[in-house]
Design brief:
By secondary structure, the chain is an alpha+beta fold. About 25% of the residues lie in helices and about 30% in strands. It has 2 domains: about 110 residues, 2-Layer Sandwich (D-amino Acid Aminotransferase, Chain A, domain 1), CATH 3.30.470.10; about 150 residues, D-amino Acid Aminotransferase, Chain A, domain 2. The model has no long low-confidence stretch (mean pLDDT about 95).
Length: about 280
């Protein structure tokens, strides 16, 4: 059971941690976040996650001067967490009034919270995903906390008996999941949406592409099309807390399992994680 969180340079009990109602992260979702998987006490792909966090903060003009790696190390040691995840959120800070235009020189609010819920490692149970027209904002490449569209889509998916949502463009292009990247195999080649403003540059997505290159698996960064769904051979979603999960149903279309290549990819990703853990040092 996690007892403490990190808030603005201090470790405080969850019961005593307080944020101002005028914090812009609370009022506007004016904040950037990151989620890191913890495996055997090691924060996986730590440098990549922190680099993405800093890039996103720069995109929205939020600055801070904390050594996050230092405090993550202390936090993990304090809680003794071996398996779980770390959530990081940095907002623009607390303003004097609720106004869209922020005051100058605000002090950012830096928050971190460990969770002992264990994320996936090896292939999870096959998922059912539902396609939904993409109604999100135009900068999905920035990991902002204002995720109302994703929340609404996931609620819809759950109500209809699905595990995950996949956002689809008006041209029928498969983009990404509500909290995952998507890969579709067609004619022996894996398709995934290219990096642009419509998808998040996922850390797990990047590692899967590395596996493809290392193992000589053909892929192309081009979106799969809904109109070609009858020719889809395998489909999977992946993410920090999802791992690599095969998709057994996409909307009303069902796929024959097992997906042999998805299983091999998932096992290769698990090996990447284990190697990272073995070689990790602060």
């Amino acid at each position: 059971m996690i007892q403490r969180c990190f808030l603005n340079g201090d470790f405080v009990s969850l019961e005593r941690a307080c944020l101002s109602p005028l914090d812009r992260g609370f009022l506007f979702g004016d904040a950037i976040y990151e989620v890191i998987k913890i495996r055997e006490g090691v924060p996986l792909w730590l440098n990549e996650h922190l680099a993405r966090l800093e890039r996103n903060l720069e995109e929205v003009g939020i600055t801070h001067d904390l050594d996050l790696k230092y405090f993550i190390n202390i936090y993990l040691k304090k809680e003794g967490l071996k398996f779980g995840s770390l959530y990081i959120q940095i907002s623009r800070g607390t303003d004097r009034f609720r106004e869209h235009l922020p005051s100058k020189r605000l002090l950012p609010t830096v928050f971190m919270l460990l969770s002992d819920a264990v994320p996936a490692s090896l292939p999870s149970d096959p998922l059912k995903v539902i396609p939904i027209d993409d109604f999100r904002w135009g900068r999905c490449d920035i990991k902002v906390t204002s995720l109302a569209a994703n929340v609404l889509a996931k609620i819809k998916a759950q109500k209809e008996g699905f595990d995950e949502v996949v956002f689809v463009s008006s041209r029928g292009e498969v983009r990404e999941g509500g909290s995952s990247s998507v890969f579709v195999k067609i004619g022996g080649i894996w398709f995934t949406h290219p990096l642009d403003n419509h998808i998040l540059p996922g850390i797990t997505r990047e590692k899967i592409l590395k596996i493809f290159r290392d193992k000589g698996i053909e892929y192309i960064e081009r979106p799969a099309l809904i109109k070609d769904i009858e020719s889809w051979e395998e489909i999977c979603v992946c993410g920090t807390l999802t791992g690599v999960a095969p998709v057994a149903r996409f909307g009303e279309v069902k796929f024959s399992l097992p997906f042999e290549e998805v299983i091999r990819i998932a096992n290769a990703y698990d090996e990447l994680e284990r190697n990272y853990v073995d070689s990790f040092s602060w």
